[in-house]
Structure to design on (389 residues):
C-alpha cells in the first residue's frame, strides 16, 4: 500500500511554547521531563488488592492511550498485590502511598516504576527519608512528591492560613530538600489545588524555583464537564508557558475519560500529533443545512479512525469554502448541496443527502492512502474497521 502526503494543509502544528528545561527522570520505560513528550496518566479506581479488576482497568487505560498508571496502596493487601500488578501491567505502575512508610518500601521492592508520597501525610516519616532515598536509589525508582491542597502539611497551614500557592510550593521544596540531603534527586513534583487559578500560580512559582519535572493536576476537579474545563484551562495556561512534563486529569468519571481529555488537551496545544479532528461551525441564521446533524453523523461514521485527518463540516458559503479548503477534507454547504473539498480542491458537488456518505468515503480513501487499512464491508462501522498498517 502506498503512503502519500496529504499535501497542504498539514494537521501538524508547532508546539505552543518552548518547554521549560527540566531534568529527566524515567518512570519505568517512560521518560518524564527534559525533552520527553508530555505524557498522560491516570489512576485506577479499583481496590488494588483485587488484582484481576485492577489489571483489567489498567488494560482498558492502556488501550485508551494511558502511558503511566497510579494505584492506591492504603492497606497491606494492596501492597501485597503490587508485585503481580507491576509485573503484568503493560505500562509503568506508580504506587500511591499516604501515611505508611512501610508501603513505600513494599512498592519499591515490588517493582513499581515510581512511588508517590504526600508530604502532608508523610511528616511522621520525615526521619525515614534517608532510608527511602537509599531504597529508591538502589532500585532506580523515582519518587513523586505530591502536595495536595486538601492535605497540606499542618505547619504550613498554620504559617499561611490556607493552601496558598506559596504554601504548596514550600511544602514540596521542603520535602525535596530532605531527599536532596541524601543525594537523591530522582524526583518529580505536583502541587495540586482544586482552584485552577491557585494551581497555575503554584506551578509557576515551583517552575521558577527548581528544575524537577512537574506533574500537572487540578485536584478534585469535579464531574466530567467541570473537571474537563478546569483541567483544560489550567493545563493550557501552564503548557502555553512551557510548564508541565506529565499530566493527570482528575474527573469524577471513569479513568478512561481522563485519558481522552488529557490526550485532547495535548493535541489541542500541538504537543501531540492530532488524530481525527472534525472542524465544524456552530451554525447560525445563515446555515443552509443541519450542521449539528451533519457533524455528528460524520464524527460517528469516522469514530475510532486513528489517523491525523482534519475534516471540516461547514454550514454555508461565508466561511465554508475557506475552512473546507484549509482542512484535509471538507464540505461547504449551501442551497441543499455540498461542495466537497479534498486537499484544498473542490472534487465534486453532491446533494445534501449524500454529504455524509461522501465525506466518510473520502476520509477512508485518504486514510488508506496514508497506509491505514480500512475494510469497507465490515458491518461494525468504519471505526472498528481500521487497522493501522
Ligand atoms: S459557516 Fe455559515 S452557517 Fe456556519 S457559523 Fe459561519 S456563517 Fe454561520
Amino acid at each position: 500500500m502506498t503512503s502519500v502526503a496529504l499535501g497542504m494543509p498539514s494537521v501538524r502544528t508547532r508546539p505552543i511554547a518552548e518547554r521549560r528545561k527540566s531534568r529527566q527522570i524515567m518512570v519505568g520505560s517512560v521518560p518524564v521531563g527534559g525533552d520527553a513528550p508530555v505524557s498522560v496518566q491516570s489512576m485506577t479506581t479499583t481496590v488494588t488488592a483485587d488484582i484481576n479488576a485492577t489489571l483489567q482497568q489498567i488494560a482498558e487505560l492502556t488501550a485508551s492511550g494511558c502511558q503511566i498508571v497510579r494505584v492506591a496502596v492504603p492497606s497491606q493487601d494492596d501492597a501485597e498485590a503490587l508485585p503481580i500488578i507491576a509485573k503484568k501491567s503493560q505500562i509503568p505502575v506508580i504506587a500511591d502511598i499516604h501515611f505508611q512508610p512501610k508501603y513505600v518500601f513494599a512498592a519499591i521492592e515490588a517493582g513499581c516504576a515510581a512511588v508517590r508520597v504526600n508530604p502532608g501525610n508523610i511528616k511522621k516519616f520525615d526521619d525515614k527519608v534517608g532510608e527511602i532515598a537509599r531504597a529508591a536509589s538502589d532500585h532506580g525508582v523515582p519518587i513523586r512528591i505530591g502536595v495536595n491542597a486538601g492535605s497540606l502539611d499542618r505547619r504550613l497551614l498554620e504559617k499561611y492560613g490556607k493552601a496558598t500557592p506559596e504554601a504548596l510550593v514550600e511544602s514540596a521544596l521542603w520535602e525535596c530538600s530532605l531527599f536532596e540531603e541524601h543525594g537523591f534527586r530522582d524526583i518529580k513534583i505536583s502541587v495540586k489545588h482544586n482552584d485552577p487559578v491557585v494551581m497555575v500560580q503554584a506551578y509557576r512559582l515551583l517552575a521558577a524555583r527548581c528544575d524537577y519535572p512537574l506533574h500537572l493536576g487540578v485536584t478534585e476537579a469535579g464531574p466530567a464537564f467541570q473537571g474537563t474545563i478546569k483541567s483544560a484551562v489550567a493545563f493550557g495556561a501552564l503548557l502555553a508557558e512551557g510548564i508541565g512534563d506529565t499530566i493527570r486529569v482528575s474527573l469524577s468519571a471513569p479513568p478512561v475519560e481522563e485519558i481522552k481529555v488529557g490526550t485532547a488537551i495535548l493535541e489541542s496545544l500541538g504537543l501531540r500529533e492530532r488524530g481525527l479532528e472534525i472542524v465544524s461551525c456552530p451554525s447560525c441564521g445563515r446555515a443552509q443545512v443541519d450542521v449539528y446533524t451533519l457533524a455528528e453523523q460524520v464524527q460517528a461514521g469516522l469514530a475510532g479512525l486513528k489517523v491525523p485527518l482534519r475534516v471540516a463540516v461547514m454550514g454555508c458559503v461565508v466561511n465554508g469554502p475557506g475552512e473546507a479548503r484549509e482542512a484535509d477534507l471538507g464540505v461547504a454547504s449551501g442551497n441543499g448541496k455540498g461542495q466537497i473539498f479534498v486537499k484544498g480542491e473542490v472534487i465534486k458537488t453532491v446533494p445534501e443527502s449524500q454529504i455524509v456518505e461522501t465525506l466518510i468515503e473520502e476520509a477512508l480513501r485518504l486514510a488508506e492512502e496514508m497506509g491505514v487499512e480500512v475494510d469497507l464491508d465490515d458491518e461494525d462501522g468504519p471505526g472498528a474497521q481500521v487497522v493501522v498498517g
Remarks:
- The CA atoms of residues 119 and 174 lie 9 Å apart.
